[in-house]
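Action item from last week, closing it out:
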Amino acid sequence: MRITATNLTVAVAVLFIASLSLPPIYSSPIASYQEATAAPQQEGGWATIKTDDGMLFVWNVRGLYFSLAVKGREINPLDDPDHIFFNVDGHVLQIQVATIDKFAPNAKEKKLNDRAILAAHREWESKYIEGLLNSKISVRTFNAKLSNGNDASMWQFDMPEARNSEAQKQLYLTLVVKDYVLMLNTTANPANSDGDGRKFLLDTIASLKISPTAIDIKKLSESIRATSKP
């Protein structure tokens, strides 16, 4: 089943997460994201680069620099100027970053470990979502250990009946990266189970690469293009 961008926009309208601690994000206007391969290195923005098996998402914002490989035959950005959403072969994917001091300002003084920080983030996000939905949610949490040994948190909740015609469940994966929490979000529906969604998030986060310096998007895209299959 192919899900249209219009239907997905409705489905993910309740997913918008506050990002007041971050500057505006920028991306090339891409109906087909090949256009992003020509994007310059950009501090304070993000871009996508087409690859043989999908796309490479690159983030260059306020001292946090990373890339994520997203695999899919058909990947399209959803039309939202304030949030990062993609349709990946029918899976919704949101990528979001929050500064730790936004929801746990005393984390360093209290010497909170990653699990405690992720728990505080989950509580902060959950309260925001409840306000957005005007409804209480029941969160299920799964602790995860990534292949690099880092702690991660996976959590999900069932959508209220009045809002679950397109997405029955919301699924999240979060981990601590420097002074931030990186969050990936997807949905579960009759076409994509919550087990499928969790696997999709884990497969995506497994490709995470952190850079100590801003990523030169033009140089990286040229390198990828040089090794791409004809």
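Closing note: DSSP finds five helices and eleven strands in the chain.
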